[in-house]
Amino acid sequence: VTGVGESLTEGKKTKASNVYRKNAHYGPSAAVDGDEDTRWATDGDVKQCWLEVDLGKPETFDRAVIEECVEYGVRVTSFQLQARDGTTWRSFFQGGAIGRKLEGTFAPVTADAVRLVIDGDHGPTIYEFQLFAPKRK
Q1: Which of 32, 39, 70, 123 is the most exposed place for a label (fewest CB within 10 A)?
Q2: Is 54 helix (H, G, I), strand (E, B) or coil?
């Protein structure tokens, strides 16, 4: 596990807009399994996609760690994190390229589900997508 503390996404239910060749080995759960040797991947021609994580109950978080597989180049050109607010999704954090590892902090967000929405030049591959609760003082 790459973050500090326990990831709120680890082992949670996932779904994705696309999976590489519909191969379960590259399914969305690989991005939240705490194993940096597995990954969620999309087909190569995918330029926009999303990974959704159902947290099971409302959770509060203020940090994210996203690790992209860059062995074949940096494929993510921009991303945003969205929280489910009832039946709608609202963005709460966004950025450009992810690269090997991106660590982001933001104002605390409470949600029961989150989405990593990706734009890229070529199908992205994500090793890990983690969210962390605020540090206790």
Answers
A1: 70
A2: strand
Q: Quick one: 11 exposed, middle or buried, by C-beta within 10 A (0-12, 13-18, 19+)? A: exposed
Tokens at 37, concatenated: 């040797």
**Structure confidence by residue, pLDDT tens digits, 100-118:** 999 999 999 999 999 999 9
Using CA atoms, how far apart are residues 46 and 52, in angstroms rounded to an integer?
16
Burial 41-58 (b: 16+ CB within 10 A, else e): bbeeebeebbbbbebeee
CB 74 within 8 A of CB 110: no
Rounded distance between C-alpha atoms, residue 111 and residue 59, angstroms: 6
- Number of helices and strands in the chain (H, E): 0, 7
Q: 0.85 exceeded by the pTM? A: yes
